[in-house]
Structures are given as structure tokens and as C-alpha cells.
Amino acid sequence: MTEQRVTLTPQMLQYDDFDDRGRTRWLPYLMYFHRAQYRSDAVNTDALGFRYSHGPDGQRASVAELPETPVRLFAGSSTAFGIGATGDAATLPSRLWSTHAPAAPWLNFAGRSYNSAQEFLLFSLYRHLLPQVSDIVVFSGLNNLALARLPEEQRGDHGGFFNCGEYYEQMEGLRRNHRGRGSLFGRPEKPAPRAEEPVRPLEERIDSAVDLTARHLENWQALAQGTGARITFVLQPLAGWVREEPAPEEKLLFDELDRRSNFWELYGDIATMEPARRYAYELQLACNKVGVDFLDLNPLLAEAAGPRDWLFVDRAHFTDLGHDLTARLLAEELRLS
Q1: What is the pTM for the complete model shown?
Q2: Residue 114 covered by a domain
Q3: CA-based angle 330:223:326, to the nearest 5?
Q4: Fewer CB within 10 Å, N- or C-terminus of the chain?
Q5: Nearest-angstrom CA–CA distance, 49 and 36
Q6: What is the pLDDT of residues 89-120, one digit of tens each?
């Protein structure tokens, strides 16, 4: 039987290839970034690994192929990057540039599977390449909250990151090898078994995610001050944060994904509207303190979308309709032109 994911969202097979773990591009400081000069119908990247964005009249730009004008940056993680879009022209920065806010080019400055620390580091490492920047939209929030459930030894001082368990396992292997070389008999020592750490209460995880987000937004502010760029933090939509009943196509896809994953076991306590409202409230307060504009897009998208509008290819990523509707709401709410 053909999977609903293949039938309804065939572009996701190209994203699977793009995100092939066997071809992960490991980078200093960032841990990982997109494959460079990747080519497909759905997704294409430049020589640095940034995705292309498209503007009016066939224009195209990226961090490695800059326009000769001031630019706007669209930062964040995989939703900002445009996972789910049928092509580069359907992503959020492309829909803003080509249709809803075309006054200046929008660069896709997002990183797949990034947390707020990696989003900021990406900006700090490549800021020197950019021309004048007038607006920065950080379209994020989900990953910090999802990663807050990791054990303390993986969260560290700056928050956990995706696949960090594999990283720490490899580092522990290196430590064992080095200890073994200096031991009496030259044999690596086995690590002592660790007791399983219980998941922290939801309130603690929300506080942790908010604190990290605010800390890194302060860094965005500090680096962007000299440019005069306006920074806005947008809490990204999640299907369960937007509406309780999915559209028909979404239900088919979500049910299929649930049969193949443990989504509800891992993220069920953050995937509904009540924790989303609490999270948004705390993020609003934190953004006010650091002087960054804040927008929760979830209630706006819920109001703008019809009950049968197919917005999501999975619970975090948009269809082309979802991208276009979200871009229009961003342009209106942030008074972009």
C-alpha cells in the first residue's frame, strides 16, 4: 500500500535525501549545517549551504549569492528553512520577497534542526558577508521547548541540540581510548552505568526554553544594533497549537506518522494549545525585557485558516498553502512592505 506521505507530499522524499544522516555536513561551532550546492526540484542550496530564496521577476538570492541592495533576514530552524515546500519559491522568505513584502530581498538564514544557540551562531559566523540588513525575523521557538526534556548532562550550559546523544557517546568513546592509553594495562575503562533521569516538569522546561531564547535574542540585539536592523521573534505555529481538529489531509498524514513514531510519548505534553498559551505568554514577557518585538502566530493562523485548509505536511512543517498564508499574516502583522 502506498504511504499517504508519498501520495500527498511526494516532495518529502527529496527532503529525506537532503537530510540523509549518512551525508551530514559537520561544521565547527555549529555542529552541522545543510549540504552545500544540493540540487533537486524541492530544495536547492548555495556554496555555503544556505537555501535560495526567490523574488519577483525570477530573481534569486542567497548568502553566497547576494543582491546588490539592503536585505532582510529570515532566521530560525526547519520551518523557517521551508521543509515541506514543493520548491524554493514556496518557502516563507520567498513568499515574503515575491509577493507579500517585496520592498527588499529576503534571505533564507535558517538552519535545519537548530536550537536558538545555533540560530544565533549562524548569524554571528556569516554576518561579515552581509550587506546592510533592515529587518531580521527569528521564526522559532519549538525546538528549544522540545529539547528541554533532555537530561541535564546533555543540556549543559547552553541547551541541548538534536542528535547530541550520538555526539556525547562518541566523545565518551574518545575519552575512554585516551584513559586506556595511560592506564596500567592499556585497556579502556568502561563507564559506570548512569541512572535514568526523569523528565523535568513542564513548567521547568518552559522556563528553561524561555531563558535560553531570551539570552540568545539579547545576543542578536547586540550584534544587530550597529546595523539599525529591527529584530522580531515569531513563535512558530505547530499543528496542535493552531487547532484541535486537523484538516482531512493532515489527519491522514498525522495518523500515519504516529504509527511510525513515538511523537506523543516524547512531545504530547507540549503539543496542545494549553502549554502553547503558557509558553507564548512567558516568551512575550522575556522579549519585552530584552527589547525584541514578539508575535505569536498560532492564534492568527487559526483565525485566518478554514477548517479544511491543508496547512501542514507534518505537525511542524507547512504545505505551500500554509507557507503562503503564514507569509501574508507576517507581512500584515509586522507591517512589512
Answers
A1: 0.93
A2: yes
A3: 10
A4: N
A5: 4
A6: 999 999 999 999 999 999 999 999 999 999 99
